[in-house]
């Protein structure tokens, strides 16, 4: 098995430690030769990196090299994979994306509505620059991009790099939802095979099967309708905001019983309720700044001070695991099936060919091979087109 040279761009992120833990958990499936962190914010990245050094020394001694840099050449030269997780404007601009729309009584969310559009406009030019930088030094690397707002970023990259077939856009939300389905069924997420269609943060599971082909969709629906729905992944299981969001799935399913909705549909189907639930003085950005960001900072400080992870509560999360499994399937032609964002080209036959849709695909070393979905019902087509024609 060829060992991979991986770069994480935007490594100062609060998700990086979870990613490092996931790389360790997946080291047999996606073995690394070297790991490089890249960020434009030296200080933010340095803290995460110093903690990562300790973690890797303890738990990944086989890794030949770990380094962190703000230099593009040093970062991107000779990479096999680049995971892109940047946030243009940081959490302080996320706060504005949420609070400005709320001031006018409309949804204030980082990827939906006016805030999502603003974040999109902000992210596009940085993403284009970054892809150009990566391509300058590693024309052949796989770029796995999960930068938000993924729907808009994916569309921009499709238009600017139409011939670059080694950029794959991806989101962890369907997987995080499937972790909860798996828990309902007493199974592992990797035992489940989804059928799904939509745009990023705007889609539906139409079926869930197990690996033997048994249809488990009704078991999941009945459980949600009767008992509600809760997050189960370690990163979100105790987070009041995510608990509220998952709870809303029951209401969505009661009102629209045909398919199992992505959690983000709450912002489109019940915008006024979502506005009412928000506190304009303390939005999700504030929660993340006071919550995850502080927690990760303290965790890093602790690990650096101890030069050991013995007092650190480190967890593997679905976010990292999912990205790595997809990367492994790209690297080793595993032909696993994962939900990814890809150009429609007839997958959903009654949507435009150039739409960037979110669908299950077999992930091969030649890229995602999505399965045909055919025509979707008019109601969903209408909702999707409403979004598509915005951009
Ligand atoms: C999910 C979505 C991501 C999004 C994240 C926000 O994982 O798929 O696209 O970035 O939630 O979570 P947060 O906890 O920062 O609100
Ligand atoms: Mn997402």
TrEMBL record:
This is Maltose-6'-phosphate glucosidase. Homotetramer. Signal peptide: none annotated. GO terms for molecular function: maltose-6'-phosphate glucosidase activity; metal ion binding; oxidoreductase activity, acting on the CH-OH group of donors, NAD or NADP as acceptor. Binds 1 NAD(+) per subunit. SUPFAM superfamilies: LDH C-terminal domain-like, NAD(P)-binding Rossmann-fold domains. InterPro entries: GlycHydrolase_4_CS, Glyco_hydro_4, Glyco_hydro_4_C, Lactate_DH/Glyco_Ohase_4_C, NAD(P)-bd_dom_sf. It comes from the Bacteria. Belongs to the glycosyl hydrolase 4 family. The record marks 110 as: Increases basicity of active site Tyr. The active site is at 172 (proton donor), 264 (proton acceptor). Its EC number is 3.2.1.122. It is an enzyme of class 3 (hydrolase). Mn(2+) binds at residues 171, 201. Residues 196-387 form the Glycosyl hydrolase family 4 C-terminal domain. Keywords: Cobalt, Glycosidase, Hydrolase, Iron, Manganese, Metal-binding, NAD, Nickel. Substrate binds at residues 94, 148, 284. Its cofactor is NAD(+). GO terms for biological process: carbohydrate metabolic process.
